[in-house]
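TICKET: design request
STATUS: open
ATTACHED STRUCTURE:
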């Protein structure tokens, strides 16, 4: 039986990311991140199925290819495309199963386009789908919750071409997050119970790739601090380097920081969200105190761990001034990189329920739920001002002067310089192609607020 697993493209990953990716890697890499979820689907598919992975970020789907079963993953911004692909394959007689973040949040919507929808982890749902397929008893919805505790699988990497990805060996060590930020899908879909893989499984997986640098695909590496310390200790003998996502709370634990550094940590992405405490409170980011940010970041930096800050723009308490302050903070704190996605009410989150009940959603065209489009009515500024603020923030942070101030020359941070220069050039090329100037924070601050 032939099984196709498909990662659909989105406007974001087809237009922006691969273009930049190809430019920056001189055409050698086609997409950023290998589709770990589909590698896991492959790992839990019965052995008698012949598996092919089609990542639309890398190559187009051949709708005439023979396929008995088609499995499609989707996050919210790729859902429209995923549904279209599903409809096409069903017309051709294939059985279609959908899974991933978006179908897990809205299974009834996904079920309109699929024979079955898997809610939650593939490990706990896909084997039941295949069992029922063989007995002609497919159910519409399979829920991971119904399967009890199923261990996190080791992904099959033989089903993808590593050369096509910038991050060819992402590794996931955990699921869930103990925090409850109102805008986040992770805890809303995978729950607050933080689950980890056996450390020996992770180490074996990492060794099997032959890689020396790893990216951990977890939202929160330190959801269980004692376990994280044990994990970092196990990494030390490997002599590798790694980067991943953590929380600012890590700065409070010297032992954790020290072990992270010894285990090869080069950089961490932190969801800082805002330097306005009102915004943090509004997002229910209870553990984060804006007044402590600078001290905490200095602590990471004292261990030579570079920080990438992620800031959200568009909280009800946000004004152009509060957003600009986050950007100026990112410069002052000498963050290696930063990003400024627009607050997005992803289905399944409390934020979505709130905006929906307040009638503030401007669209439910999921392809626009990409962090670059304003999909709700902001409270204190127009949607256009909010979008201009985002562009101005990127323009300011990735300006040559800002890069020089933040990175300096000594010690020379080669990879940070490459990443910042690529972002600086990419942004300027984007505006140059459109024949427009990059907005400045000063100009956007003068736009009318509500
Ligand atoms: C790495 C990553 C990326 C990578 C690319 C990931 C990829 N391969 O496409 C990059 C950096 C490019 C990226 C970009 C973005 N990302 Co991102 N990303 C992640 C991150 C941190 C890890 C993804 C991963 O590999 N997870 C591990 C896999 C195994 O988990 P999984 O996908 O959920 O799969 C499991 C189940 O869902 C299920 N499953 C999944 N697919 C399928 C399919 C079938 C058939 C079945 C049966 C089951 C199944 O089984 C899997 C194994 O148990 C996640 C956070 C997270 N914890 O997942 C965010 C996350 C997926 N990203 C998110 C967002 C918002 C974005 C951006 C929009 C950000 C932005 N504003 O720019 C862009 C959009 C990119 C695009 N496609 O256009 C959100 C998605 C929210 C949503 N509702 O859509 C997440 C959840 C982060 C968050 N906390 O909110 N991202
Ligand atoms: S934003 Fe980060 S800390 Fe907050 S719930 Fe999501 S993963 Fe956890």
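STATUS: resolved
RESOLUTION: sequence designed for all positions
ATTACHED SEQUENCE:
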């Amino acid at each position: 039986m032939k099984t196709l697993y498909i990662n659909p493209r989105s406007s974001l990953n087809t237009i922006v990311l691969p273009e930049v990716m190809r430019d920056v890697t001189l055409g050698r890499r086609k997409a950023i991140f290998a589709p770990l979820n589909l590698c896991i689907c492959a790992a839990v598919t019965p052995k008698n199925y012949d598996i092919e992975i089609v990542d639309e970020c890398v190559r187009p789907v051949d709708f005439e290819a023979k396929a008995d079963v088609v499995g499609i993953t989707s996050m919210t911004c790729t859902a429209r495309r995923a549904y279209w692909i599903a409809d096409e394959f069903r017309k051709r007689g294939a059985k279609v199963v959908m899974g991933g973040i978006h179908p897990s949040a809205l299974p009834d919507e996904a079920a309109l386009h699929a024979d079955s929808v898997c809610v939650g982890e593939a490990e706990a749902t896909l084997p039941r789908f295949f069992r029922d397929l063989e007995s002609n008893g497919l159910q519409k919805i399979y829920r991971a919750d119904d399967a009890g505790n199923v261990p996190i699988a080791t992904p099959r990497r033989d089903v993808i071409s590593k050369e096509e990805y910038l991050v060819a060996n992402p590794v996931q060590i955990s699921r869930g997050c103990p925090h409850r930020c109102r805008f986040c899908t992770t805890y809303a879909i995978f729950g607050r119970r933080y689950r980890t893989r056996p450390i020996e499984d992770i180490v074996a997986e990492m060794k099997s790739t032959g890689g020396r640098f790893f990216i951990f695909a977890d939202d929160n590496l330190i959801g269980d601090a004692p376990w994280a310390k044990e994990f970092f200790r196990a990494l030390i003998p490997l002599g590798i380097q790694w980067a991943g996502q953590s929380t600012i709370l890590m700065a409070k634990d010297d032992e954790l920081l020290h072990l992270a550094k010894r285990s090869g940590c080069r950089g961490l992405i932190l969801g800082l969200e805002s330097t306005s405490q009102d915004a943090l409170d509004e997002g229910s980011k209870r553990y984060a105190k804006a007044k402590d940010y600078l001290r905490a970041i200095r602590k990471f930096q004292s261990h030579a761990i570079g920080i990438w800050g992620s800031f959200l723009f568009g909280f009800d308490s946000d004004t152009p001034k509060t957003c600009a302050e986050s950007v100026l903070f990112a410069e002052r704190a000498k963050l290696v990189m930063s990003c400024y996605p627009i607050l997005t009410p992803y289905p399944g989150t409390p934020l979505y329920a709130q905006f929906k009940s307040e009638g503030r959603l401007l669209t439910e065209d999921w392809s626009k739920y990409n962090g670059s489009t304003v999909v709700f009515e902001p409270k204190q500024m127009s949607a256009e001002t909010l979008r201009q603020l985002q562009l101005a923030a990127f323009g300011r942070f990735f300006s040559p002067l800002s890069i020089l101030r933040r990175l300096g020359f000594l010690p020379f941070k080669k990879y940070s310089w490459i990443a910042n220069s690529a972002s600086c050039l990419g942004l300027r090329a984007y505006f140059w192609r459109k024949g427009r100037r990059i907005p400045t924070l000063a100009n956007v601050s003068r736009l009318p607020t509500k």
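CLOSING REMARK: The chain has a mean pLDDT of 93. The first strand starts at residue 2 and ends at 7.
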